[in-house]
Amino acid sequence: MASSPLVAATAQSACLGVASSILAQALTAYNEASNSGKPVSLTVDWVPVLQYLLYILISTPPNFKWQQLLESSFPAYPATKEQQTRPEKQADADAKADADADADDSAAKPGTQQQQQQQPLSKANTLIKLLLDQTLAAAANTLLYSVFAHSLRAAMHPQPALASPLDALRFLAGQWSSSSSSSSSSSSSSGEGPGPGPDFARVRWEAVWEAAQGEFWPMLLAGLRLWPLVALLNFSLIRSVQGRNLLSGVAGLGWGVYVCLAAQ
Question: Which residues are bridge partners to 234 per DSSP?
């Protein structure tokens, strides 16, 4: 059974998000080795990897729906006036004719599809989608990530470094303890041991919101160096939301590395 476009897009973004988080750790290890003159040694800390994966799983579905809403509201290739004013009876007759056509007549259908694909790109709709996506959506995504990252970081402080994906998953689920695992490679500098998992009761939400506001403009302006170009290519060249999500995911691989490095 084929998966829905939303599920496929979320899975695709999740894989790229995991890759970007691991790549960020690899770049950090390489830079540290270059500065110290020691050989590169990489041990993946799976806690931040799963943190970023969780954010991807939360943020991808609403962003996918947002892209669908933009395209349905401001289609890149809107129907012509002739198509919009076509009599209902004529449309029914065409549908019946298509249903009754034999195999010899089916050769005419690709021509009809090609004619639809040759409709001119609506520059006005493309501009509207670009502005909405790079203002409303960009601001919402920036705040969402900042609030998510700072609140989760506060909820799980002090945070261990876990080289086992299973231990990291148990930690995030609140079922991990340092006595049951040997994969913890670090602890809090204050000597306080890591707790069993995230505890949002310890989160100071006013501090989280203040931190999110403080990094809002730097992160938003950094995103403006990449995402407007990606959005313009998406809205002008790629017709399907699935294809747009793929291009955004590939661009997001590099953006994810930047975000993960900034979070370290």
Answer: none
pLDDT tier, 261 (very low <50, low <70, confident <90, very high otherwise): confident
- The secondary structure of 32-60 as a DSSP string is HHHHHTPPP-----HHHHHHHHHHHHHHH
Residue 7 confidence (pLDDT): 95
| pTM assigned to the model | 0.79
Top-confidence residue, 37 or 195: 37
Distance in angstroms (rounded) separating the CA atoms of residues 262 and 74 = 35
Look at residues 235, 237, 231 and name the one whose alpha carbon lies nearest to residue 255: 231
DSSP 8-state assignment for residue 162: B
CB-based contacts of 128: which residues, under 8 Å, 6+ apart?
Answer: 74
CB 165 within 8 A of CB 255: no
In angstroms, what CA-CA distances link 214 with 80, 134, 145, 263?
47, 20, 13, 14
1 contact partners, CB below 8 Å, separation of at least 6: none
Cα 72 from Cα 113, distance rounded (Å)? 19
Rounded to a whole number of angstroms, the distance between the first and last alpha carbons of the chain is 40
Decide: helix, strand or coil at residue 3: coil
Q: DSSP assignment, residue 156?
A: T
CA–CA separation, 260 vs 51, rounded Å?
A: 10
**Burial of 29 (C-beta count, 10 Å sphere; 0-12/13-18/19+):** middle
